[in-house]
Design goal:
There is one protein chain. With 717 residues, the chain is of the alpha+beta class. The chain has a domain at 480-708. The protein has 27 helices and 22 strands.
Amino acid sequence: MNAIQDHELVLDGCAPMPLAGYLKALGVLRLLGEQKPEWVVRGAWRGDRFVLKSEAFTGDAREDRQRLTAFFLDEYRPTPIVAPWNGGSGFFPGDNRKGMDALADSKSGRFADYRQAIRFGCEVVDRLGFIESPKAEAKAEFLTLVRGCAPEALLTWMDAAILLAGDEPRYPPLLGTGGNDGRLDFTNNFMQRLTELLDPTTGNATPGAHAWLPAALFGETAPGMKGAAIGQFDPGGAGGPNASTSFEAESLINPWDFVLMLEGALFFAAAATRRLEAAEPGMLAYPFTVRPAGAGNGGIGPSDEAQARAEIWLPLWPGFASAGEIKALLAEGRATLGRRPVRDGLGFSRAVAALGVDRGIAAFQRYGFLMRSGKAYLATPLTRVAVRRNPDADLIEDLEAGHFLDRLRQFARKDETSSRIRSRVRLLEDALFELTQRAEPSTLQNVLVHMGALSLALGKSRKAREEVPPVPTLSEAWVVKADDGSPEFRCATALAGLYGAGLPMRPFVVPVQQEKHGGWGWHPESRLAVWGEGGLIANLGRVVTRRQLEALRQGADVKPFQFNAGAASGDVAAVLSGQLDEDRLAALVAGLVHTRIPERLVSVGETTVLPAAYCALKPFFAPDALLSRFLPPERTLSLPGEIVARLQAGRVQEAVGIAWRRLRAAGFPLPRYPKTPPSAQGLEGLRLLAALAIPLEPAELTRCMGAVAREILVETA
């Protein structure tokens, strides 16, 4: 925590959470900037406190507090906030008019602008003959009329609460639906709270105002809180079931909190934007406000996301800024990805990682406007997101090829989509959100694992295949940056990089086929996709069998075990001994098959001596380029089905015997003594077959085959 300097004043009552506290801080800054310009006040966030800085402050906390409270008690002129377009606003029969009538009849100069706004609202309603709030087209026409002839002092409020663009008005979620949330009208409550703080006749502060202000500004204890609604701005103070030690509690608020938070909300202004690439012309653009996304917060489910109004990302800046500078920041508060405006919370987090926002911002406090307590909305704190450059987040761009990410998320939000796919999509989104915040191999691996699981689920769903394309091919950077130096990752990458004549590894995991344009398309009738239940060892056994059969079908010269990157002998030895996390390895394979595998991995594993029986079988899984060092010209080796069958049946020694005879017949330089094949004692058939499928790094593979070709074969069980 930075030490407080001279001319600074800490507002302990103004914190980023709840939303009311954040808006209250902005309200203080705005009002001082507009009504006390000679103070030249600036504000900044330090941790969870708002700090003011002004030459008018002496550094004596007690004296500066008195100076600030004196302004609000004696000089503050409320901004006129009325909503003659809303039912319950005080302008229609049956509305509560207590606060509005008191202000309309006020004599104090502090309420001059307010009296003018109330008179204007009454005149417009009377002139048009409304006896209840207008609806639908009549409301749109009414709002246009009001906006065209409203007093200047009222326009600030209207611009924050309503956007008039296109055929119908739009309502920024920060202020509900034009200044109300359901039956709670913010403007009427604002006027009632004002009359509890300032005497309408004299303009003097009430005794309650003196008692409540230190609590609102400085976090002190406040006696006698008022029983009144605060709406969506403070979920903890909204009352309701389980809100206290009894069954239900009423909403208790500090009137200053309500007044100052609405004053702060006026910093925000809506604007209509039309972009050529936007699918929705006249789309509402509101400062740092996007569509709701459950990603990045485990407390929000799909149903919450579907019913949410929006989410807003509120900037926290550590450097002192004036009200004018913050107003400019919010006015241009658009986060972008390249040239595209972001659409949802995940996109916003990506923009933050790419520094697509103002560099003076240290973090964003993220809020979701979620439906709670019937049909009422509450501004629910979600996450605090730090602003820092994270190049790894740029990798997410690969998933946008073919609009994959958009189409996937649209499909996941349909009612008919299975819960399995919804769950997989949610896990992937959470992993992507985490990737925007943390540049670590484990974070990228987490994305790959969830992407692989999702791809498997999509491939099994007819509806999903109709609406969502296969996962796009991801760049080599995914593999390089996800390499954590673990044997599991090296083995998974080596397996994912297997290829041959038309035999990349991906179609053996998910039902896809390569299209003429070079991309991937679904192939639900594919016989190659054998990856499924049963664990790593069983899956690799099925893959080896299918690759061997497909190579046989294509011709004897087809080598099904070409590879890009290889694992270390120590990694393979760990597979043979069952020492690896095979569930993780299998999950990584399913994700890595969607990437381009580089020719070499970043990490290098340990070298060890592999069993002689393994070495005798490994030449049948080696590419011709390496085999040519050991075979006579024009000779080659192909994997016999009988070797695979013997290993699957657990008849390992027979499989080694067949391999030995085949090697000798092919001219492989086997030792003169002993002439018998090496012992396979202690090796389990299916596990050995799985280990053989894992490519070895070329130098390691050469050493392995060289061990078979020694003058005397050293057996190592």
